[in-house]
Amino acid sequence: MIEILNLVKKFKSVDKNNQPTFKIAVDNVTLKIRRNEIFGILGPNGAGKTTLIKMLTGQILPTAGKIFYDGKTFEENKTAIKKMLGVVPQHINFDQDLNVGENLELHARLYGMEKIDRRQRIDKLLSYMELADCKNYSVKKLSGGMKRRLLIARALIHRPQILFLDEPTVALDPQVRRKIWALIEELAKGGVTIILTTHYIEEAEKLCQRTAIINGGKLIAVDSPQNFCDRLGKNSLEDVFVELTGRRNSL
Ligand SMILES: Nc1ncnc2c1ncn2[C@@H]1O[C@H](COP(=O)(O)OP(=O)(O)OP(=O)(O)O)[C@@H](O)[C@H]1O
Ligand SMILES: [Mg+2]
Questions:
Q1: Nearest 5°: phi and psi at 118?
Q2: How far is the CA of 229 from the centre of ligand 2 (A)?
């Protein structure tokens, strides 16, 4: 279980008079994510979704607040906890000088996987993501959709118990998007806890047991799509979203 307590992230910024100021990207968020659930984080551009994921995965430090994984503070157990986490970042961050297979190999080595396991796992995931023919391609040559599939393959190499996906299906065609949805559901059935951010309300509605709605860095509400609709007397998560954020859609 992941427990987030009064988490805050402030970024240094400048105001319109060029005076130093702070941007509060995540504003006192308290939240529990259960083991083995598919948990959605829904919010418009700039809501703080990526900043929250980056703190939960140790890519940036919180300004204030605490994160616990199974009761242990992330701060004090970062190395051990990070081994259990897989991260699909919003922005592509491959080593551009390595080819597709080498990028995965590097990741597998960083996680200390044995040679035979590395090879088998890389081939299996490339094949699942329909990238087997691209193993020797330069990552620069991949299309946007191929890069996103490779990001997912890379995040799964070391068999994470908790998988964070920051907008996993953005820019994917409907067929690939459905395949990723199926994969997420399969991973969850296999015991993996999934935390995903999305702009696509239907994605949260289809996949997530519970969804947090965030806006302006603040947690507005957390519930299951069905409970949201029942509580607010709405027919869809889309209508709930409009009611809670005042926004037409999440973009
Ligand atoms: N490194 C940074 N320095 C300064 N401000 C930042 C930084 N990273 C994010 N921000 C600001 O924090 C706020 C939240 O950004 P964040 O990327 O977390 O939003 P998001 O919900 O992921 O948005 P999107 O849907 O566009 O991906 C935004 O106002 C953003 O401009
Ligand atoms: Mg983001």
A1: -55, -50
A2: 25
pLDDT, tens digit (0-9, with 9 covering 90-100), for 135-169: 999 999 999 889 999 999 999 999 999 999 999 98
In the chain the domains, ranked by start, together with CATH numbers, are 2-245 (3.40.50.300)
Q: How far is CA 120 from the centre of its chain?
A: 25
Q: Give the pLDDT confidence score for residue 249 in this predicted structure.
A: 57
Alpha helices of 129-173 — where are they, by DSSP H? Answer: 144-156
Task: Kindly calculate the radius of gyration of the chain based on its CA atoms and give it in whole angstroms.
Answer: 19
pTM of the model: 0.93
* Residue reference for tokens 């296999």: 190
Assess whether the C-beta atom of 48 lies below 6 angstroms from ligand 1: yes
204 torsion bin: left (phi>0), alpha (psi -120 to 50), beta (else): alpha
43 lines ligand 1 (CB under 6 A): yes
